[in-house]
Amino acid sequence: MPVIALLEANPWFYVTACVLTGLCVGSFLNVVIHRLPRMMEARWRAECAELNNQELAPAERYNLIVPRSRCPACGHGIRCIENLPVLSYLALGGKCSACRARISPRYPIVEILTGVLSGFVAWRFGLTPAAAAAMFFTWMVIALAFIDLDTFYLPDDLTLPLMWAGLLFNLTGGFTDLASAVTGAAAGYLLLWVVFWAFKAITGKEGMGYGDFKLLAAIGAWLGWKMLPLVILLSSFAGAIVGIFLIILARRGRNVPIPFGPYLAIAGLVALFFGETLTRNYLELF
Q1: Count of CB atoms situated within 10 Å of the CB of 218
Q2: Contact predicate 175/121, CB 8 Å
Q3: Which of 33, 57, 83, 196 has the most beta carbons within 10 angstroms of its beta carbon?
Q4: In Å, how far from its chain's centre is CA 154?
Q5: How distant, in Å, are the alpha carbons of 5, 16, 19, 111, 123 from that of 10?
Q6: pTM above 0.85, yes or no
Q7: Residue-by-residue DSSP string for 101-117
């Protein structure tokens, strides 16, 4: 029986396969989340040195593939058997096999989150091109959300390809028509650009980064301009709730910045999965 026919005849097998694929992709996303900001910083240092006619000392080759993953505490190289998504973390008891240093639970959290959302995408969209596109969108926003949490970066290396991929997918009416996708990309960028400059004019401070503009532009490119009000509303509400929670319970000062990218990512996923239903129910109230 052909693979496609087998998956169509056994939808739960298809969903399970997507969950397992998502777990493996989540393991790779952990590499992206950890290494991409460091790669960006190394590139910036090289550019600054070039502008100042300085020479940097030769550095170890460092990208998403090399060097091999290793323990940050002792330098122990992670073997393949120690790199199985979630299972290796549980088998090792959350500690390095060599020095017993604690491994952050964030690694299995990213893997489980990616696996669960990948399975949900498969269930929600079925065995269709839309499922493959939605899975790509989901993986990208997960990486962006966690990078922003760690570094306050939303790298162009991810936001711009995500935006262009959305426009290309909607060339043939993927999640929306092309006109709505182009308008969504432009409006998403301009909405936060206006908010940024209005806030700066009033307070003299920068309230968000340019990466937030590009991420909302990417979401608009994928989902169309009609989803932008919902995304803005959901992300602002989530950000406000978390911000109040941190101020009250964690005694975090009001001037301590909070990354906005994770809330945009959450809102984008909610809009992807339930946007039409939420918008229709809201409009029916009036």
Answers
A1: 31
A2: no
A3: 33
A4: 9
A5: 9, 10, 15, 24, 12
A6: yes
A7: PBPPTHHHHHHHHHHHH
